[in-house]
Amino acid sequence: MTGKVYRIDFENAAKKALKKLDRGTQGRIIAAVQGLATNPGPDGVRKLTNRDALYRIRVGDCRVVYQIWDEQLLVLVIRVGSRADVYKNL
């Protein structure tokens, strides 16, 4: 727990991908992402190999790829989607 509150922002591609998911999955992902505001490194977070400052959390069958900007207290969600699609063209 950092004691700081991070601002959450989504890239446009992540917003579009989130809207395509069913409402139940959307709700679980939004709840998980909101949790990143107080703890950007929750249990189960993985740093992506060969990617600078990219992390992912798993929410059911979906993955959320994000960056942590400690200087700006920002968590930027880069991608949201299934495991098969989320890592393509990162």
Structural description of this entry:
The model has no long low-confidence stretch (mean pLDDT 92). The chain is α+β, with helices and mostly antiparallel strands and 90 residues long. The chain has helices at 12-20, 23-35, 83-86, and strands spanning 7-10, 46-47, 54-59, 62-69, 74-82. It has a single domain (7-85), classed as 2-Layer Sandwich (YaeB-like fold), CATH 3.30.2310.20. It has three helices and five strands, in the order βααββββα. It has a five-stranded mixed β-sheet.
Kindly summarize this structure in a few lines:
It is built from 3 helices and 5 strands, in the order βααββββα.
What attributes characterize this protein structure?
alpha+beta; YaeB-like fold; 5 strands; 3 helices; five-stranded mixed beta sheet; 90 residues
Strand order, sheet with most strands: 1-5-4-3-2
Unreliable segments (pLDDT under 50, ≥5 consecutive)? none
Q: Architecture in CATH?
A: 2-Layer Sandwich
Biggest sheet features: 5 strands, mixed
Q: CATH topology, what is it called?
A: YaeB-like fold
What is the end-to-end distance?
Answer: 28 Å
- Spatial shape: globular
Q: Could you tell me the strand content as a percent range?
A: 25-35%
Q: Mind telling me the CATH class?
A: Alpha Beta
Our count of domains comes out at: 1
How large is the count of helical segments? Answer: 3
Secondary structure: number of strands: 5
Evaluate the radius of gyration. 12 Å
Which whole number gives the mean pLDDT?
A: 92
Tell me roughly what share of residues is in helical segments: 25-40%
Q: CATH H level: which superfamily?
A: RelE-like
Coarse structural class: alpha+beta
- Secondary-structure element pattern, one letter each: EHHEEEEH
